[in-house]
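Entry 14: structure prediction run for RsmB/NOP family class I SAM-dependent RNA methyltransferase. Input pasted below.
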Amino acid sequence: MTPAARISAAIEVLADIEARRRPATDALKDWGLSHRFAGSKDRAAIASLVYDALRRKASAGWIMGDNAPRAVVLGMLRLQRGLDVDAIAALCSGERFAPEPLSDTERERLDQADLSGAPAHVAGDFPDWIEPSLQRLLGDELVPEMQSLATRAPLDLRVNTLKVSSRDEAHDALPHLGAVETPLSPYGLRIMPGEDGRGPAVQSEPEFLKGWIEIQDEGSQLVALLADAKPGEQVVDLCAGGGGKTLALAAMMENHGQIYATDNDARRLAPIHDRLTRAGVRNVQVRTPRARADAVSDLDGRIDCVLVDAPCTGVGTWRRNPDAKWRLRPGSLEVRRKEQATVLDRAAGLVKPGGRIVYITCSILPEENDDALSGFLERHEGFTPVSHEELLGKSELGFLKNATLRTAYGLQLTPQQTSTDGFFVAVLRRKP
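Run finished. Output C-alpha cells:
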C-alpha cells in the first residue's frame, strides 16, 4: 500500500470507530480481515495513523474546524506528524486509493494551524467534563501535562533479577533493540517507538523467553518498588490481574516469603501462571476465586503488605490507549470509585497490626486517588498514611522527591514529570 492509501484506510477505520462506538483494536482487526491484501507493515502503519489521530482528536478537529474523520486525520498530520501543507496535499491527490484533494478551506486551515486560542480541553486533547478534576491536581500545568499524555509511549522493560545478576547483563544481550537504561528505575530498559509508532517484538526474543526481561512501564516498576516488599514477608496482591507487579514483588523479595496473588475476575489471572514459570518465581501462590467465595479469607489479619493495584479509569495510560479517553463517561468514574472503596475495605481486613496497604492506580484523577483514600480513612480509624519522606526513604528512591507531584496522601507520576505513565501510589499503615 502507498502512504496515501494508508491514510485513506485510517480515515475509514476512524469512521467505523465513530459510527459503531467501538474500541480501536476491534475496528482495526475487522479492517484487516476485510482487506487481506494489506501486509503486516501496512496494518502497523494504519494502526499508528489511527492512534495518532485519536491522541490529537480534539486539537486536530479544532484547527480544521471539523471533527469528521478526514479532518481529524489531516489535522493530526499537521500537529502530530509535523507535515506542512504541501506534503499533506501530495498525499491527498485523489488518485487510485488516495484521499480526495484538499479543498481551499482545508489548505487555509492547515496553513494557519494554531492552538493559541484553544480551550484547555482542546489544547490538551481530553474530554472537557474531567477538566475540573484535572485542574485540582495539575493547576497551571494542566495543558502541558495533558499534551505529554497525548504523546507516544516508549516500550519499557524490567530486568528480572531472579534470572540475571544486573541490568547491564540484560542490556548487553540486547544491543540490536537499541535499548537504553531508564532514568529512574534501577531495573528498567527503554526502547523508543519507531516511525510507525511500534516497538520491536520483544516477546520473541530469547532473553524474554528465558525470563530475563518483562514488559513493564517504568512508572509501574517504580510504584512496585515503593511497596518496599522485603524477603520473608507475607504479601497479598489483591488485584493481581496478569501478574506484572506480582513478578516485580517476587524479585524484590528474592523468592523468600510468600505472595498470594488473586483477583476478583478469574479471567484476568489466566496469563499469570506461565509468566511466573518463565520468570523463575517460586514464592507466589495464585488464589483463583470460585463463584462468590473469597479466595484469601483464611489470611485475615496475617498480612504484612497488601498491594491494591486498584481498578480505575486508566487515565494515566492514555499514551498507550488513546481511544479510551474518548470512551470515558462520568458513570464509568463512579463505578470505579465504588470498586476502589470495596477493594480497600477488603484490604483492611487482611493487614495485621503494623502492616500496610499499598494503594496504586494508573490514574491522575484525584477522585480515584486522594479522595478514595480520604473516604477509606473515614471508614477505618486504625490506619494512618505514611509520609512522603518515609515512603521514599524506605524504598531508597529519595531521588523521586523532585520528580513526582506530592498529593495529600501519596505521590503522582506523570509523563511530563517522570516520562512514565500516570501512576499514583500511597501507603497506609495499620496501627500496632
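Notes: Residues 264 and 294 are 8 Å apart (CA to CA). Will compare against the previous run tomorrow.
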